[in-house]
## 1
Amino acid sequence: MPPATHVRTDTIPLDQLAPFPGNARRGDVELILSSLRRNGQYRGLVVQHVQPDGPLVVLAGNHTMQALQLHGPGPCDYRATFRGEDQPCGVCRNEPWTPAARCEVIICDDDTARRVNLVDNRANDIGEYDQDALAELLSYLDDDGYEGTGYTEAEVNQLAHAVPPLDTADALADTEDVYREQYGVIVVCADETEQQTTYERLTAEGFNARVVTT
């Protein structure tokens, strides 16, 4: 059989979809549901249509399917604020809703199906981030918070005030050919809440504080 062939894009009830058997990935379903409620379903599930009358098997997007199942039938009472305006749930729109997902239906053999499932899980694992670009993207969301991004406020603060790795600091020192001593105090906090409170207090007092998690 040739490589995967796209058949159609369709909205399919969840009770007509089956998870990929043996899917090795373990995703954060509640985090995905948070994104779906805030952002809606911005990417379709990739579903294998087994000919002629076989099941519809989810090759990519198994945890999105689980998150939609976790939401359950609508309406729900979720509301969000975007630029001062009230926004409904991105899944059910706060209206009666039968659990369903937008799907990209493909035809392929079982060998290709396994490869699609594996590479969809693996591709994210081996990627990297440009930390400066990530911090800048997150900075645009300050006014409305970070719900639906996968990041907490403490994590964003850590990115914005991260201490450069030692090799980066050494490289900068070599480039400038000047050594400047720096002095600081490390405050060990009991938990993330105390870390955030301490950081806000120190910055309010004019200290150049940085958030570090080890």
Note: The first strand starts at residue 5 and ends at 13.
## 2
Amino acid sequence: MCGRVIVDYDELIPAAADTVLADWITAAPAGATSSWNLKPTQHLPVAYTDHKTGEKRFETAYWSLVPVWSKELKTKFPTFNARSETVTEKASFKTSVKHRRCAIPVSGFYEWTGDKSARVPHAIFGPQKLLTIAGLMSWWHEPGADEDAGWHLTATVLTRASAGVMAHLHDRMPVFLADEFMNDWIDPELTGNQAFVDAVSASAVPLADDLFEYPVAPLRGDGPELIEAVSQG
């Protein structure tokens, strides 16, 4: 799973200049601030291509995908993660797989190990200052609002069985988005299906070998001090 991420825009923005997402990520989204403890239902960054205009967009989205048919900006069950293996079978996600895919650029993320009474968070990073995760998005519209108002962009993180560095931390990990699939993944003209999702998911496995992780103190508050390593001794 992936339920807490790190987004340091001061590092992420310049790092994007050397990636496939360079044309999408040129500045922090309006009103966005860095966070070292970003949680579901808060706003995380997403890069996507506008399906109407073809414009490359970099914005923030409510982290928990809310399908268009929902009557309110929340769901009865968690939707901040979506299992890649069954995503086209789930009513909340299957429409987004077809044409509402996005890239979620983060600085890193956290996972926990240990017993419930003494869980230890681990900060996890890629070899570069930007780690891109495959996501899905949905535009939710407030009931009764005008057509040109009341729109909310919502998103979820795709997950898969863990591999590489993640294997000893948790049985699930984010689907890291390989460069070879980046453009197709955020191309709304390409109709997505389960085979496409499976291919993207498989390409995340070798990327997991390049991650590095270390234990940190329990996450309280927010700030760069949260990613300082601590001894497990």
Note: The first strand starts at residue 5 and ends at 7.
## 3
Amino acid sequence: MNPQAPVHVRAEDDAWLTVVYYRFRAWRGRRPFWAGLFTLLGGFPIAYFPYADLRLGNVTLAMATTGGAGALIIGVLLITLGLALWFQQAIRVFAGVAAILLALVSLPVSNLGGFFMGFLFSMVGGALALSWAPGQPDEEAPLQDAAAAAHPAPADPADHPPVSLGKADAMAGPQGIPGPRGTETAYTSETTAHADGGRNSAG
């Protein structure tokens, strides 16, 4: 299921069993393997038990029912769906729904779904088929590059040395408004009247 899984490259000293294992692992990862396996296994007890005989000494117990033909059809269909999940991944949704419906029908038709064994296997296989999705290529790196371009990192102050300001720039006020000169008072309201304690001087 993971397309980014490392591909095994055969070395000269690798045993043939190791090569077969890695090739099977790569084949299994590209398809709903476990869904097909559980569906396949669920079809065998559903199709087998209606035609099986249980011998207890000299007594033979036949488990055949009137729905023996229906049980055989359900079992064969489940086996076919399990194989289809391995080799036709495009029909996984249809195969999953069909496996669940056939498992439910097998309860009254085939000895309680093959004594609940086939029923449980088929239900699990159908649920896995519905939940499986093919792997997508890893696209995290392009997304990270785009995010970095949209939100550039703040510049490092060490890379940009401070610029020395001239005398006129140092005296500038907020928003570039010139500040008071050296011969001017800091506040326009400060006059000679304020400097003399509130008494106006006439001259």
Note: The mean pLDDT is 74.
